[in-house]
Structure formats: structure tokens, C-alpha cells
Design a protein that fits this description.
Blueprint lengths: L2 H9 L1 H18 L6 H19 L20 E8 L2 E7 L9 E9 L6 E10 L9 E10 L4 E9 L15 E7 L7 E6 L9 E5 L5 E7 L4 E7 L6 E8 L4 E8 L2 E7 L10 E5 L10 E2 L6 H4 L1 E9 L4 E9 L9 E6 L1 E3 L2 E3 L6 E3 L6 E3 L2
Antiparallel strand pairs: 1-2, 2-3, 3-4, 5-6, 6-7, 7-8, 9-10, 10-11, 11-12, 13-14, 14-15, 15-16, 17-18, 18-19, 20-21, 22-23
Helix pairs in contact: 2-3
The chain binds (2R,3S,4R,5S)-2-(hydroxymethyl)piperidine-3,4,5-triol (DGJ).
(2R,3S,4R,5S)-2-(hydroxymethyl)piperidine-3,4,5-triol binds next to strand 5 and strand 13.
Length: 369
């Protein structure tokens, strides 16, 4: 058993004692009559540890996250949607052995947000519009449209101004759209465009309590980021809802306890920086001043925001900060930093990363001591 987990168990000493008591009684009946009580206690603790581990394997920020194939999860810059009891995680698939002429998006599923099953490389896209060999696909996000019954994927599409250019590969500044009839099928690329006619780089997704779907996109010329409503079929970006004048990317948004909280990162390429948050009563704003989500010297503990995921359970609601720990020279090995946020009353804080466990049914999160 991991020592930190033992502390968690110890902190629940009331429950632990009663479980140990029960196990001890059972153990007495099945063990040799000469067994010393200390052995029984050890046996009971081992059983207890196994039960606890089976029930709630921890989430380990920054470590390798292995899927059902024992391969590191490739869902960088990703987003998550929930369909019935299942979470689907989409993100950039940067696997080392990918066909380098294509760009890839992978999809994984989980019912506990801990164990992830690889479902499909839902997008294996060859240059769709003659963008040139250096074209980019980043930060895919999938929405489900109830009216059309289609899953609609948005992605940041970029590349140099002219296909053959050797310079900046972040000039096109567009979004791409792809659709599929099933959540984890092969998505069909539809087109790319500039949302609301504006430059768009990092994108984020937000689904409000009434089911309305929004795209968040960063726009450099206007020095801020937009929250924009999608059209009824989700195939277009229809209406600016809010423009937040702060040069931030990696936009993530959540509606929690009557307040909207938005997080963004400064623009330092792949290098981590102090991510910040602001709040508003209405999506339209006005938005508060931005404040750091973690001590600034930690640079968000080496991560960059991609999504805030709300887990509404029977006992409480947990909002998870989902961040990427980028490794620009070995992207396939980039890691994930997920932690339950301390959030409420207009304040938001990312705790120092540690192992933690989550019960998706009760919504309870427990951080190891
Ligand atoms: C920061 C963005 O958030 C990433 O998605 C990626 O575009 C890097 N910049 C590239 O430098």
C-alpha cells in the first residue's frame, strides 16, 4: 500500500476501525488458532488496503497515465464530454509512431475518470485544405448536438500564411470542424474558418447549465479571448457573448454555485506560466480582474489549463482543473495535471499537486496528505 493512501485511511479512523473489526472477526474464523492478534491486524489492514485501492485508485498528476493497453494516454490539450455514465476524453494524439503526414485526435472513455479505455483515433487527418506540410491541429473539443444527433468536433487549425513558408506556423489562425454520428467513430472533416471572422488560436469549450454550447477562442489582434455561442447545429460560431480583454490562452470556463469562473494562461508558447482566473455573474460579464490560480513562482506547477470539469455527485460537486504539462521536444510524453479546485465565493485556488482520489458518484475528492 502506498504510504500516503494509508494516511487517507487513517484519517477515516472511525470507518477503518469498524472495517478492521469486521475483518478481524472473519479472519479469526479462517486463520489458524495459533495466529497472533498482530498477524490478524496485519491481515485485516491488507484486506482493507486492497478494498480501498480497488474502490478508489488515485489520480497521480504528472505521472504516466496508462490506458487499457498500457500505453500513455494521448489526449493533450483535450476536452471531456459525458454521455450517460461515461466520460469521453478527446485530445491531441502525439504518439511517436503516428504517420507524420497526418494529424491525429484520440478518444478514450472512463466511468471513474481514473481508468481510461482507448476507443479510437477518431481523426487521422491528412492536410485537408492544402495548408502545407507544417500545418497544425491542436486542442480538439467535442460537443454533442441533440437536434442533429451529431457529435461535432472543433479544433485549432494553423499553419504558415503560404503552404511552403518556412517561418511562423501560427498565421492561419482558424478553427476546423468535423462531425460523426457516434461519439468514438471516425470523424469527417467539414471545413475550417475564422470564427466571427477573427483570428483564433487556442480554443476551449463550455456547455452551460441550459445545454447551450460555447467556443472560447483566443484572438491576438484584439488582445483577449472570446466566449462565443455556437449555431443551432453547432457547425458555425454564431454570436459573440463576451470578449475578455486580457491576453490569455488555454481558456477554460465553469459555472459553479451561481458564478462563472474563467481560467487562462499567459502566452509563453509551450513554457508554463502563472495561469489566472476571473469571475462574472453573467457570461456576458462584467468580468472581474484576473488573479493567479496558484503561487506565481510555481508557474501553475508546470502546467497549462485546458478544461474545468464539473463532477456533480450525490454529496458534493467537485471542479477539476485539467492542465497539460507540455514536453515540446517529446510531445508524446507530455503529462497531465488534474487536481480538484478549491472554488467558491468568487475565489479559486489550484492546490499543490498530489495524489488524490475521486468518487464520481458522491462527487467527493480526497487529496493525499
Ligand atoms: C500555447 C498553446 O496553448 C498550445 O496549445 C500551443 O499552441 C503552444 N502555445 C505552441 O507554442
Amino acid at each position: 500500500m502506498h504510504p500516503q493512501l494509508f494516511f487517507q485511511i487513517a484519517r477515516h479512523s472511525g470507518t477503518a476501525a469498524s472495517i478492521i473489526g469486521t475483518t478481524r472477526l472473519n479472519a479469526r474464523t479462517s486463520l489458524s488458532p495459533r495466529a497472533h492478534p498482530i498477524h490478524l491486524v496485519i491481515a485485516a489492514l491488507t484486506l482493507l488496503a486492497c478494498n480501498v485501492l480497488a474502490a478508489s485508485e488515485p489520480i497521480r498528476p504528472g505521472e504516466l497515465w496508462l490506458d487499457n493497453r498500457a500505453q500513455h494516454v494521448q489526449a493533450h490539450g483535450g476536452g471531456i464530454i459525458k454521455e450517460r455514465d461515461t466520460y469521453f476524453w478527446f485530445g491531441e494524439d502525439r504518439s511517436k509512431d503516428n504517420d507524420r503526414s497526418k494529424r491525429h485526435v484520440a478518444c478514450y472513455s472512463s466511468t471513474d475518470l481514473v481508468h481510461w479505455t482507448f476507443r479510437n483515433q477518431v481523426l487521422r487527418l491528412a492536410d485537408p485544405e492544402n495548408f502545407g506540410p507544417r500545418w497544425l491541429l491542436e486542442r480538439p473539443k467535442v460537443f454533442y448536438n441533440k437536434m442533429t444527433k451529431k457529435f461535432v468536433m472543433y479544433m485549432h487549425i494553423d499553419g504558415p500564411a503560404n503552404a511552403g513558408d518556412a517561418g511562423n506556423a501560427y498565421v492561419l489562425a482558424r478553427v476546423g470542424v468535423a462531425t460523426c454520428d457516434t461519439v468514438d467513430g471516425d470523424y469527417t472533416y467539414i471545413r475550417s474558418f475564422r470564427p466571427l471572422g477573427k483570428e483564433s488560436r487556442d480554443i476551449g469549450q463550455f456547455i452551460d447549465d441550459d445545454g447551450s454550447a460555447y467556443l472560447i477562442f483566443e484572438c491576438r489582434p484584439t488582445k483577449g479571448f472570446y466566449i462565443a455561442k455556437l449555431s443551432a447545429d453547432y457547425l458555425d460560431v454564431e454570436k459573440e457573448v463576451s470578449f475578455i480583454r486580457s491576453p490569455l490562452e488555454g481558456g477554460a470556463l465553469v459555472h459553479h454555485d451561481g458564478l462563472y469562473y474563467v481560467i487562462g494562461s499567459l502566452m509563453t508558447g509551450w513554457k508554463a506560466n502563472p495561469n489566472q482566473y476571473a469571475t462574472a455573474l453573467k457570461l456576458e460579464g462584467p468580468w472581474s480582474e484576473f488573479k493567479d490560480i496558484a503561487p506565481p513562482e510555481t508557474n501553475t506547477y508546470g502546467s497549462q489549463s485546458t478544461l474545468m470539469l464539473q463532477v456533480v455527485g450525490s454529496k458534493q460537486t467537485t471542479v477539476i482543473f485539467m492542465g497539460d504539462i507540455w514536453k515540446p521536444y517529446s510531445q508524446w510524453d507530455s503529462r497531465y495535471l488534474w487536481m480538484p479546485l478549491e472554488i467558491g465565493g468568487g475565489k479559486l485556488r489550484l492546490p499543490e499537486p498530489r495524489e488524490w482520489s475521486l468518487d464520481v458518484y458522491t462527487g467527493e475528492a480526497l487529496i493525499a496528505r
